[in-house]
Amino acid sequence: MANTMVRWTAAGALALAAVGGAGSFEARAGASPFAGVYSGVVPQPSNEWTWDITISNTGAVKGAYFYGDSTDYYRGSLSGKVTGAGAISFKGSDSGKVHDWYTGTGDVIRFRSDFAISGTVSLDANGDLATSFQLSGGRGPITWYRQ
């Protein structure tokens, strides 16, 4: 019994060592230096939206955002790519439903729009993703915080 337990313990230790150890992370050779999960506030004319993005080891960018409630809301998604040097580009789409409070009618307005953004990103001293791009209306740049 003791020999069997020693063999299973040794086999488990070897398996753990083969996958990199418990709780350790080491980037694969050629993996994107920006790989990770991030969240950041995107300033808008009258409010702020939180965008959550994920960058894979290959540099694929995917993200989503939601702002509002069941009455008035904006939501969207984005996808794109970031190179190892930090050149980022992504496309996205918005949709939403808002009441037209500006004209006083309160009419429901539904909308959908598409956007494309490109620029550069870099990692700051905290490992957060700092961007160079501006959004329409001069809003930005954005910092996405590593989660």
Q: Can you walk me through this structure?
A:
- With 147 residues, the chain is mostly beta strands.
- Helix content is 12%, strand content 48%.
- A hairpin with a 4-residue loop joins strand 3 and strand 4 (73-82).
Total of domains:
1
Strand content: over 45%
The count of strands amounts to: 8
Profile the largest sheet: 8 strands, antiparallel, barrel
Shape annotation: elongated
Q: Tell me roughly what share of residues is in helical segments.
A: 10-25%
**Cα gyration radius (Å):** 22 Å
* H and E string: HEEEEEEEE
- Discrete helix count: 1
How are the SSEs ordered, and which strands pair?
Elements: H1 2-18, E1 36-43, E2 48-55, E3 60-68, E4 73-82, E5 87-99, E6 108-123, E7 129-131, E8 143-146
Brief description of this entry?
The protein has one helix at residues 2-18, and strands at residues 36-43, 48-55, 60-68, 73-82, 87-99, 108-123, 129-131, 143-146. With 147 residues, it is mainly beta.
Key features of this structure:
single chain; 12% helix
